[in-house]
From TrEMBL:
Subunit architecture: Part of the 50S ribosomal subunit. Contacts protein L20.
Keywords attached to this entry: Ribonucleoprotein, Ribosomal protein, RNA-binding, rRNA-binding
Signal peptide (from-to): none
Sequence similarity: Belongs to the bacterial ribosomal protein bL21 family.
Function: This protein binds to 23S rRNA in the presence of protein L20.
Gene Ontology molecular function, alphabetical: rRNA binding; structural constituent of ribosome
Domain of life: Bacteria
Family matches, as Pfam families: Ribosomal_L21p (PF00829)
Species for this entry: Desulfurivibrio alkaliphilus (strain DSM 19089 / UNIQEM U267 / AHT2)
Keyword Transferase: no
Record protein name field: Large ribosomal subunit protein bL21
Gene Ontology CC annotations of this record: cytoplasm; ribonucleoprotein complex; ribosome
HAMAP family given in the database record: Ribosomal_bL21
């Protein structure tokens, strides 16, 4: 059994017991979150597609980690002008462990 959920403007395929990184969600490590924007649920031969979401379907997950991704360096330069700019960015994320698909 698997489902397609939407969170943080992206879509993810999830199954019970799987782990995934999503855009930062509010909550502490160990908290339970509910993903209610379920776009598709597949259980064996039966597939339910939502328009846009499947009514009554939800996915429960546990927050495993709240952290930042690896640093991405941004370097800008304009030739012959002496303009150089170096910045770094670390995107925050939330790691989830999927408990069940209801």
């Amino acid at each position: 059994m698997y489902a397609i959920v939407r969170t943080g403007g992206k879509q993810y395929q999830v199954a019970a017991g799987s782990r995934l990184r999503v855009e930062k969600l509010a909550g502490e490590v160990g908290d339970t979150v509910e993903l209610s924007e379920v776009l598709l649920v597949a259980d064996g031969n039966e597939v339910k597609v939502g328009r846009p979401v499947v009514e009554g379907a939800r996915v429960t997950a546990r927050i495993v980690e709240q952290d930042k991704a690896k640093k991405v360096l941004v370097f800008k330069k304009k030739r012959r002008k002496g303009y150089r700019l170096k910045k770094g960015h670390r995107q925050p994320y939330t790691a989830l462990e999927i408990k069940e698909i209801l």
